[in-house]
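Hi all, posting the design record for the shared folder.

TITLE: backbone redesign
STEP: 1 of 1
STRUCTURE INPUT:
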């Protein structure tokens, strides 16, 4: 079976200093809202959709970052549904998930990979 690799386009999202430490910010790319997280305590960066699928609100960039048993997560600021920043799976036991995006840091800028 042939595996077709998806082409990733890297977009310059923001300067690293524009994303709060241990928090997130929203960037827009076309019609997409993407939440970018600077998990400074872990030395890691993540990006997800900004839309919380629970109540369909564009709020995840304002969520609280943390971890559960070593897995990085974000909690929706309104209803506290939590999502893995690595896989997008809901960690609150519900059948929700969010899209995640690859992130890289170069020359003081955050880049998000879009398929």
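Okay, here is what came back for every position:
SEQUENCE:
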């Amino acid at each position: 079976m042939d595996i077709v690799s998806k082409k990733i386009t890297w977009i310059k999202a923001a300067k690293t200093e524009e994303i709060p430490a241990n928090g997130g910010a929203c960037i827009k790319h076309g019609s997409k809202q993407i939440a970018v997280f600077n998990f400074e305590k872990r030395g890691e960066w993540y990006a997800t959709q900004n839309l919380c699928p629970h109540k369909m609100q564009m709020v995840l960039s304002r969520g609280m970052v943390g971890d559960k048993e070593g897995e990085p997560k974000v909690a929706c600021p309104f209803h506290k549904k939590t999502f893995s920043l690595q896989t997008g799976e809901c960690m609150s036991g519900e059948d929700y998930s969010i899209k995640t995006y690859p992130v890289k840091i170069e020359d003081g800028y955050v880049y998000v990979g879009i398929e």
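COMMENT: The two ends are 21 Å apart (CA to CA).
Let me know if anyone wants the other runs.
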